Amino acid sequence: MHDLLQVRPKISPPLDPDFCPGYLGNRAFAAAARESGRAVPLSLALRRPNGSVSVHRTVALSSGHPASAANLDYAERVLKFLLWAKGSARIFVWGPGEIAAHLQKTYAKNGARAFDADFMSNVYEEPFEVIATDAAGFPAENESSAPVGRHLSGCRIGFDAGGSDRKAAAVIDGKEVFSCEVVWEPKVNGDPQYHFDGVDDSIRRAAEHLPRIDAIGVSSAGVFIDNKTRVASLFRKVPPELFEKRIKTLYLDVAKKWGNVPIEVANDGDVTALAGAMSLNDQPVLGIAMGTSLACGYVDDKGHITGWLNELAFAPFDYSPAAPVDHEWSGDRGTGVNYFSQDAVIRLAARVGIELDPSSSPGAKLKAVQKLLESGDPRARPIFESIGVYLGYALAQSAEFYRLKHVLILGRVTSGEGGAIILEKAKQVILAEAPELADRVKVHLPDEANRRVGQAIAAASLPAV
Question: Which domains does the chain have, with CATH numbers?
Fold first, then answer.
């Protein structure tokens, strides 16, 4: 990573002195380009198979600038963020030729970002391609959106599939009459029956509190098309042939068991954003759920979902060469999963000498740290302060790619006192580093009940009956 992109923050995470926010790196690069008096345009377009196109316009340093080598790192990090925010397998680059060539090499089969290219190719079912173009060949922006959820009549079940627990809510005419959460470990189980039985058990628990089931709404990590699972980290241990036979139609098969009732499956991040828009009665909303991983979703100013990927667990937020690596999946440094999840809590706990039972599940380790915080252990508070600092800079960076008005933070990491600490530090960062956002972007932390089961309730509103 070029030195120009490694900027020390005004407010450092107490437990991470090496942190170099992507927001500050992007800002420093753009400022250097403009101040040189020779900035050149750089535009990236992401075209999806349905014809929608997302366009991001920025600047680059001229080839004669002494720091022009930073162009390559900057373009790669910006494209990486765009890929996981908006999604695409066909990328058009209009700018200096060396940038397009670098991105083609980096996202090639054996390149540093091969994981990202393969993932996008699987999601969109077309080869990943970076295309160098000029003004004539550069696609025009063509965004689209569609309404989602907000159907509250009847007897409904909302199910939220998390990586550490599964939540269910029974809802009658928009009012919750029952909710529960059950610990499970989907990421380490390769037997499809384990997953079916877990979902079915949660539906059964909710069904016991309803006179009938009119519809089932599902909030789940992953990418879903026509209520079928396309890609999902929850099922990473399931062999490909069993994934195709059992997991792809998992939620449809559960609905069949319960009388073939109407079912709607949505990405858990989008349901988080929907929950925010419903509770605030306003939009746009960026929803952020900090749990087993990082789940994000977005509802636009019409209250619609956009069809964007919103998988910011893989987006780069830290440009430090010492940033933690996502060993579980992408192999990249500085991505959201290591900053806004229970893994972040566990990672930071080690830095203050908190010893956690190695045989415990990640969810149990998180609860152990939260218990220490509640008991007044001074080692615990800096963990959540650090996550709050991360969040403040991440929101400022996200504002470059999303139109923000409201941000809703949910998930088990925000439970208890830790959530208030995270929110407080995030607001401090925004005031110090991006004061222009402080007045127009409101960050919300729901009450404890909605924090834990809010997604399941919003999920219940997904199906139209």
Answer: 36-132 (no CATH), 146-269 (3.30.420.40), 274-460 (3.30.420.40)
